[in-house]
Task: structure prediction
Amino acid sequence: MPQNNSLQSATTDIVEMGRTITPALQQEIEQFLYHEAELLDDRKIAEWVDLMADDIHYFMPLRTTRGPRDRNLELSGAHDIAYFDESKASLQLRLRKLQTGTAWAEEPPSRTRHLVTNVRISTTAKADEYEVKSAFLLYRNRSERQTDIFAGERTDGLRRVDMPAGFKIFKRLILLDQATLEANNLSIFF
Amino acid sequence: MSVTKRNDAGAAPSVSLTDLFDEKSGTISPAIYADPQLYELELERVFSRSWLFIAHETHIPKAGDYLATYMAEDPVIAVRQKDGGVKVFLNQCRHRGMKICRTDGGNAKAFTCTYHGWAYDIGGNLVQVPLEQQSFACLDKKQWGARQARVDSYKGLIFATWNMDAPTLSDYLGDAKSYLDLILDRSEGGTEAIGGIVKWVIPCNWKFAAEQFCSDMYHGATSHMSPMMAASPDTLPGDPTDFSGRQFRASRGGHGTGFFVEGAEWLWRVGQAGEHVSGFDIAAAEQRTNLHRSGKRPVGFSQHMTVFPNFSIFAGANTARVWHPRGPGEIEVWAFGLVDKAASDAEKEQMRLMTLRTFSAAGTWEQDDGENWVEVQRVLRGHEARRTLFNAQMGAGAPRGEDPTFPETITNAFAEEAARGFYAHWQKLMTDVDGSFSKAGSYADAAE
Result:
């Protein structure tokens, strides 16, 4: 778990598991997330899929409203239906669908804006991997007046790679802050 | 069909009910998808008189397990009882109407209203009233239980109705049962639900969705070209007329289905990024179904189906769903996955992934359905658009019942025979002022 103390100055190094989250690392990872958001908002989906590691697990469970006795069941489980439960191959299939020119839910394409904030970084047992939590607000507008707003949290696994982007995403857990999805579909990525 | 002309008291739709659908000319008035007064009439005459899907038996396996769902706009709770039965009752406190259950599901010992504290047992009986002795002169709690619906089930699917005079569920399903069996009884032990219900909102009339799953194989090649191209670029058939299929219109009740019988084997793999569901013995499953005769069979479970009014299944993607109406221009889709109980864990996992990746809110197929219905609904804001008739003539006049393997079908999956059956039944209900048409006795009368 991250030990970030809100009273700490942004210029203070955060020591975690014997390693250090420096302001430089914080900035590097934030810049990576902004770059990723830019690819999605610029509709460069092929380049976005390239940011996913071959072992990516891209997962958005369902959420339900539960009483105290069943609160542990708020999120759907690994063997339940999810909004997304994707591998690299299935993300590539989604990409190929978008590239056909006949993917009518995104042709003409949506206008999206991915706002990413509240970035919290944890080190992991592996020196080149980080767990990164962030809050998102995703605005989608399409056709004439359709507007959808999605808010939630992502927990990403980032792996440092020798590429210009600096990292690949090998895990993305997306918690959508809705129980009944307030949209006619999910033809976009989070 | 012949329908008595009448002006219905209490509702004054902008067009006559008898003109809304004309089977002879194959025309539909778009007002049926947009008129708020027709919608109110539907709640009374269609949804309160028909059997409505509630849950799969495996959603609530143990005593006290409950699922909060809806019968049209009415919130209900379905609860497994200690004797193994299921009760379905209105999620409404009898005191001031507050919901007695504000959660989606789980296990309950009782349902206690969070307004004044009236408590109901898992059967919906009122069992505790705060200050009862001090403040109520004589409260007969037996008279103030939650309002009960009538419950029945068919091969794992639980339905309920408010119509105490309705035929049994089995009679209601009628000759559509043998086509439901293709999905529900295709392997030993039948089906079970995959955990989780995907719920999402589409601003469109419920009949667009229900009719499409009832009757419409036609839209696939246009609406769903992109996932087909993405999944099977090498094996895409050039011409959908190469497919041979059948369409079934229930002899009464408004149910319908359609499926391919040859030429579409590749459909099976479209959800799996090109991978087959390995190990699952499709042939054995098809053998089991009571429609497997004379070597003909539905291919790859490419079967769409609607049980009137608003429950649909698409066997190819193992998905079942209710289109809950939310006003004339909005639905909530509640979709869940169906798998064969007898399948291995690995096969179930592949089916789960196929379901959520194809026919679900984010499914590569279903995404595009939502887009179509939303656009149609938006067009129907127009006064002239609502007066401009829709064409539902496809396959009109095709002979029925010529294929002994698939009784009561016509020989082309690309048709609107089932849609015409859907709207004919809808119109019968809508023009049935006193509800006599949907009573058990009259239900067995002549075919629609």
The two ends of chain B are 7 Å apart (CA to CA). Residues 1-13, 271-280, 290-296 of chain B have pLDDT under 50 and may be disordered. Chain B is about 25% helix and 25% strand.
